[in-house]
Amino acid sequence: MKVLVTGGGPAGSLAAIHLAGKAEVTVIEEHQSAGFPVQCAGLISDSCFDELRRFVSDKCLLNRIKGAFVFAPDGSFVELKGKSGAVVVERKILDVELLRKAAENASIRIKTRLLSCDGEKALLRGTSGKNYLSYDVIVGADGAASTVARTLSFSRPRMLSALQVECRFEAIDEHMVELYFGRDYSDCFFAYAVPLGDTARIGVVASSEPRRYLEGLIKKHPSVSKRVKGGFVELNAGAIPANLVDFVKGNAALIGDAAGMVKPYTGGGLYYLLVAAKVLGETFPDLKAYKKRYIKKMGKEYRIGERIASFYSVLKDDDYITLVKVGRSMQGIMPELHMDRPSSLLKIMPLLGKLITHPRLYTKICRALMM
Ligand SMILES: Cc1cc2nc3c(=O)[nH]c(=O)nc-3n(C[C@H](O)[C@H](O)[C@H](O)COP(=O)(O)OP(=O)(O)OC[C@H]3O[C@@H](n4cnc5c(N)ncnc54)[C@H](O)[C@@H]3O)c2cc1C
């Protein structure tokens, strides 16, 4: 059986790795290499990295992270500890190593772009011009602007815009990420700093105008603006899907950003696509089973994750200030959270009673949770 995997990013490479021995796989990648251009802060959980380590070396490991400081707009912050740690990886290295691993069993065609497909054959443009490639199954791992999804009329996820810079930064603790909430830094999400020694990847996610929010964060945030030290060496812009869409149609399956497989409340995609690639390999060639098993495994995480993400649009600056204050008063009793599993946040529910002295905020949160 011939499988055409479109896209040599992590979703495409991992899909090819897990399909090894089950099909004759071709991966096409439009760029000269994988991991280019970078559109990622590189933050993944330890457990995600442990899974990836089966296929990549430690060369892509840049930093270890033990938790997060969550900032209210006034600069106050609270510490959140993770159940396990996290790491920061260099996607330029990770993606290349994954594609190299995929190449052990798949045929890789770089500088080859999918122009369209019709269910049986794909029109490609490579270094020697246009040509057709026939396939039995097509896997759309071609990112947020997926050509597979577009030409085969899959419904598309809602998209958020992300903008990130890498620059010199004085982190409070170089093993803690920082998350910044407030209307001046995003209309529907949050901004972040992922530390890398004396630099950091500082970014924002918003429904539009990410540049305005990023400038506001760097120039005006009461804490960040004092710690950004210039030396901007990298600028990444990209789209982040906000919801999972139907990802199987006939002999076509989507995976990764193409399918909206990202944690709805952080925008992190690597763990969710890693799970999908594994499930695709286990269930292949039954694509309906791929969809069913993935939803069984991850459906609850998406549902809870979307509710958490809805808080970002509902909460106002004053609410974040109150939440950080209440969070600080609960510092010793806060449960440890699993970075990849929003359902672990349910452990916080019994502590919501602490908000009873803030009835307006309490009602707002309960309403958002029940929506
Ligand atoms: C600013 C930013 C920060 C992020 N930070 C994190 C983070 O810290 N942690 C995390 O887990 N996630 C993060 N993400 C999300 C993460 O980067 C994505 O979820 C992940 O890259 C998705 O992988 P993918 O393989 O599905 O898509 P991509 O990485 O986009 O790969 C798609 C590949 O397909 C190729 N392609 C596209 N169209 C075609 C075509 N027509 N023909 C041939 N090839 C094609 C592209 O060149 C690309 O190589 C971030 C995203 C952004 C934008």
Give Rg in angstroms.
21 Å
What is the CA-CA span between the terminal residues?
A: 44 Å
Percent of sequence in beta strands:
25-35%
Order of helices and strands: EHEEHEEHEEEEEHEEEEHHEEEHHHH
Q: Could you explain how this protein is built, in words?
A:
With 371 residues, the protein is an alpha/beta fold. It has 3 domains: 165 residues, FAD/NAD(P)-binding domain, CATH 3.50.50.60; 100 residues, D-Amino Acid Oxidase, subunit A, domain 2 (D-Amino Acid Oxidase, Chain A, domain 2); 62 residues, no CATH class. The protein is built from 10 helices and 17 strands. The site of flavin-adenine dinucleotide has 39 residues, from helix 1, strand 2, strand 3, strand 7 and strand 11.
Q: Could you write a compact summary of the structure shown?
A:
This protein is an alpha/beta fold and 371 residues long. It has 10 helices and 17 strands. The model has no long low-confidence stretch (mean pLDDT 93).
Main attributes?
alpha/beta; D-Amino Acid Oxidase, Chain A, domain 2; six-stranded mixed beta sheet; eight-stranded mixed beta sheet; 371 residues; single chain; 10 helices; binds flavin-adenine dinucleotide; 31% helix
